[in-house]
Amino acid sequence: MGKTDSKEQETKRAKERVLIERVKAGDGSAYMELVGEYRIRLYRKASSLIGDPEDAEDVLQDALMTAYKALPRFRGESGIYTWLYRIVVNKCRDFLRSRKSSKADSLEIYEPILSDDRISVEKNHELSDDAGYLIEKIKGLDTKYRQILLYRYYDDLSYEEIANLIEVNIGTVKSRLFKARELLKRSILRNGRGEDYFEI
Fold first, then answer.
1. What residue ranges define each of the domains in the chain, with the CATH number in brackets?
2. Residue/partner pairs of 153-156 with CB below 8 Å, 24 or more apart
3. Residue 175: how many CA atoms within 13 Å on its side-chain side?
4. CB-based contact 59:46 (threshold 8 Å)
5. Whole-angstrom Cα distance, residue 68 to residue 87?
6. In the structure, what pLDDT confidence band is assigned to residue 192 with cuts at 50, 70 and 90?
């Protein structure tokens, strides 16, 4: 992370701290501002886990209400997005378990995220077989490597957000991600898919 990025992050954190204090003081509008820029990302995450848009919206609303009530206990040890992400994922898993869904603790929960409405329908069909293949290869990795790939490339989390989630330093995140990519590449090459198959 360069100096400019670091400065922008600190400015963002400072703004978040001000908003958090306003929420704690009873300003509900500050909470809407605080979570506003993350809501779409959090909804996409909920939707990718649950599959049904309406259920995802309900779970997200429940998660945001839980976060609002819990905000006075937020200690700021991680960024607010990381904290909200944890709550949303936990709520999604609770929802799936309540439905006795096998997806609750499965990598299948990540498959819908591979479909992107910014990509043409034809391209998504073209990618579908490859997406399923990648999911199977990722499933074969050790947990710590599987987890780091999913956080980075499926959930689009920053190095800092991942570090906060798994409670390691950013250097460990980068080295673990490098190792995960190498392991995945070797697995793909063993099956003759070619070096340009998974460029990340």
1. 1-101 (1.10.1740.10), 106-200 (1.10.10.10)
2. 153/200, 154/48, 154/110, 154/113, 154/114, 155/45, 155/85, 155/113, 156/41
3. 5
4. yes
5. 11
6. low
